[in-house]
Write a structure and sequence with these properties.
Layout: E1 5-6, H1 23-32, H2 52-56, E2 59-60, E3 75-77, E4 87-91, H3 93-98, H4 111-115, E5 127-129, E6 132-135, E7 138-142, E8 148-155, E9 161-167, E10 182-183, H5 184-200, E11 206-219, E12 228-239, H6 268-282, H7 284-290, H8 294-319, E13 321-322, E14 344-345, H9 369-384, H10 390-397, H11 399-415, H12 426-440, H13 444-450, H14 465-474, H15 479-485, H16 492-504, H17 506-511, H18 514-530, H19 536-563, H20 569-583, H21 591-602, H22 607-615, H23 624-633, H24 646-650, E15 677-678
Parallel strand pairs: 2-3
Antiparallel strand pairs: 1-15, 3-5, 4-11, 6-7, 8-9, 9-12, 10-12, 11-12, 13-14
Helix pairs in contact: 5-21, 6-7, 7-8, 8-9, 8-10, 8-11, 9-10, 12-19, 16-18, 21-22
């Protein structure tokens, strides 16, 4: 299914001499020397494929077209369906270099044909992966790569292994009723976010290119019955592997709730083969140490998946990233972000933020992500039994929360510039900051970034607090926006029913996923009630008081950190600012930024996509030149989420039209963009 953004206005190579170099010098050479002068950056045709997965894991022999159940196999042979007149939208130079490719290869006339799958390189063996999954808490049976195709595995310049995958290249045995195609909207979002997350420092799959075409498919982008023809688009994805939790659920016995089972139920030998392949290939240290002790090896493997997943989710929470569809088939066994669909970065901080408008119950809300990922790990543990007994996986799963808490606390101390001292009250300081953001409607990214400008001074009162407060309040929501945010989401009769169920059968309510939804609804009602008789000036006065109180507590905490630092105040402030600016991004892929690039691309202009891609390669660095380029391009960009709304045009003191004046890359969303939703 294509994910929709809707405005309602709402390893082979030849580098023998280089091995004698120290690794850090080699990396510096690779990333700083002009690409044409580096011998190991190759042409497409020179890529060295070593398709280990297809040699080690069973591949279905049936090559007939059409969807089907695939028992006893991990892959099915497929062929990409050609598209007409492919053209490159954008390519990522850093992703190309992972493969040892010269980024200039993207400029070749043949590049779009290769990158969309029209022309297959020597050594590729297209296949689709079979997996199952729990979707929104229920076992869905066989799913598989319905719109993705394994091409092969490339041995990269650092002796690493990279699986190449086409997304949107046509039907597979796992496509069910779909056509296996993706369109420009969803493809651009995945391409941009894959690379953006990497440059934020968050483990992720990568995206090398996005290629669109003249081939058209019918889509209903707003799910309102108004279907339209859209351009088929293909993304070339890269990862060490795309194996996921659901890969091991193909062995699941009949589920008591849904009545579905995995296609390879009862094939324990195949499960052992998959486990051994996975651990030997991607966790070689564990394999080397425990290969003759299977239970210990599986336990170590599961424990590492638990810990890496906990760290990953903590990283998400600290940049305000919401995945949107945290089903077991969308979680990697490497602890990396995988499958970008209806994702979203928070603008205004809201723990109940739901980026996927199809998630009516808020199962995958921002605040629910840590617990949902733990739930998914429990399903993985079930899938690994009896090879990994529950008495071994249970204690390992219990390590999840402590690993998450440690990573979250570490990240938050860096975001607040607490360099030298860890205190028990730090978690309370973070909690009160987030509550202040929530109550005032503070922009999550911008408020954290602004805090680096809050510094200690030699004398009391030397710091310009009123001006700093002005900057903070400028990044808080208006009263009208907050009232809209806290309005009721449930019909009164539904709310009464859920409250009744909470009293009579709370376990059933929790099982149905309603407890968190009920609590969120009651919290919204409480906050809306508090604003019922508030004026805009009253909100500003209240927000000022809340931020002033928190900043006072923050100042006292900074003093304690400085006192144990042993360095001069000026140097301490400078070091703290540097640390904070490296932990708090200036730029994230906000929905309106992505939509602006999509709107332009759908009109044949790929410049904005490429500008955003380059901007997000340096998310922690101020890039005023990109803002200037955007301002100059405003008049040529199509009107859409990037432009000021009609209401904003009326209040534009400069008298410029909404078509000419566009929101920047680091500002809060324009009014017209705040109703963007993704499904």
């Amino acid at each position: 299914m294509d994910h929709v953004m809707k405005s309602t206005l709402r390893h082979g190579r030849t580098v023998t001499a280089l091995f004698a170099w120290p690794m850090f010098l080699l990396r510096r050479l690779i990333y700083s020397t002009p690409v044409r002068s580096i011998r190991q950056e190759m042409a497409f045709e020179s890529l060295s494929f070593d398709n280990l997965a297809l040699r080690r894991l069973p591949v279905e022999t049936n090559r007939a077209p059409g969807s089907r159940q695939v028992p006893g196999a991990c892959f099915s042979r497929v062929s990409p369906s050609p598209v007409t007149a492919p053209r490159l939208v954008a390519a990522s130079a850093p992703a190309f270099r992972l493969l040892g490719l010269d980024p200039a290869q993207a400029e070749r006339a043949v590049a779009p044909e290769i990158l969309c799958g029209n022309r297959l390189l020597p050594g590729t063996e297209p296949a689709a992966h079979c997996y199952c999954g729990h979707q929104f808490g229920n076992f869905a049976g066989q799913l598989g790569d319905g719109a993705a195709m394994y091409l092969g595995e490339v041995l990269g310049p650092q002796d690493d292994r990279w699986e190449l995958q086409l997304k949107g290249a046509g039907p597979t045995p796992y496509s069910r009723q779909s056509d296996g195609r993706k369109v420009l909207r969803s493809s651009l979002r995945e391409f941009l976010c894959s690379e953006a997350m990497h440059h934020l420092g968050i483990p992720t799959t990568r995206a090398a290119s996005c290629t669109t075409s003249d081939t058209r498919v019918l889509r209903d982008p707003f799910y309102d019955g108004n279907s339209q023809m859209e351009n088929c688009t293909v993304v070339l994805r890269i990862a060490p592997t795309f194996l996921r939790f659901g890969s091991f659920e193909i062995f699941k016995a009949t589920d008591p709730v849904t009545g579905r089972c995995g296609p390879s139920v009862g094939l324990g030998d195949l499960k052992a083969t998959m486990l051994d392949y996975t651990i030997q290939t991607f966790y070689p240290d564990i394999y080397a140490k425990y290969k003759h002790q299977c239970t210990e090896m599986y336990a170590e493997f599961f424990g590492e998946v638990v810990r890496s997943t906990a760290r990953l989710v903590a990283d998400w929470q600290c940049v305000g990233f919401c995945h949107g569809v945290l089903n077991t088939d969308n979680m990697s066994i490497l602890g990396i972000t995988i499958d970008y669909g209806p994702f979203g970065f928070m603008d205004r901080f809201d723990p109940n933020f739901v980026c996927n408008s199809s998630d009516d119950g808020g199962r995958y809300a921002y605040s629910q992500q840590p617990e949902i990922c733990r739930w998914n790990l429990a399903r993985l543990a079930e899938a690994l039994a009896p090879e990994l007994p529950s008495e071994r996986s249970g204690p390992l799963l219990n390590d999840y929360q402590s690993e998450f808490d440690a990573r979250f606390s570490e990240n938050m101390r860096r975001k607040l510039g607490l360099q030298h001292l860890e205190l028990p009250g730090d978690s309370d300081l973070v909690s009160s900051l987030l509550e202040t953001m929530h109550s005032t409607g503070g922009d999550f990214t911008n408020c954290f970034r602004l805090l680096s400008q809050f510094s200690l001074s030699e004398t009391e009162g030397a710091f310009d607090l009123p001006n700093f407060l002005f900057l903070l309040l400028d990044n808080c929501a208006s009263l009208a926006e907050m009232q809209e945010a806290f309005r009721a989401r449930m019909h009164p009769s539904q709310l009464r029913l859920m409250m009744s169920l909470a009293e009579s059968n709370p376990m059933l309510l929790t099982h149905l996923g309603g407890q968190a939804r009920l609590e969120a609804e009651l919290e919204r009602a409480k906050k809306l009630l508090a604003m019922q008789n508030m004026s805009e000036s009253g909100k500003k006065e209240r927000d000022t008081e809340m931020w002033t109180a928190w900043l006072q507590a923050y100042r006292e905490r900074l003093k304690k950190d400085f006192e144990v630092s042993g360095v001069a105040l000026e140097g301490w402030n400078a070091s703290r600012t540097k640390i904070m600016n490296s932990a708090n991004p200036k730029y994230i892929l906000r929905n309106y930024i992505a939509q602006r690039a999509i709107d332009a691309a759908e009109n044949g202009n790929f410049t904005e996509v490429r500008r955003v891609m380059l901007l997000l390669e340096q998310p922690y660095t101020d890039q005023p030149e990109k803002e200037e380029q955007l301002a100059r391009a405003g008049g040529s960009l199509p009107r859409g989420a990037m432009a000021m709304s009609e209401q904003e045009e009326d209040t534009d003191e400069a008298g410029t039209s909404g078509r000419d004046k566009v929101g920047g890359y680091a500002c809060r969303p324009p009014v017209g963009a705040r109703s963007l939703t993704v499904t």
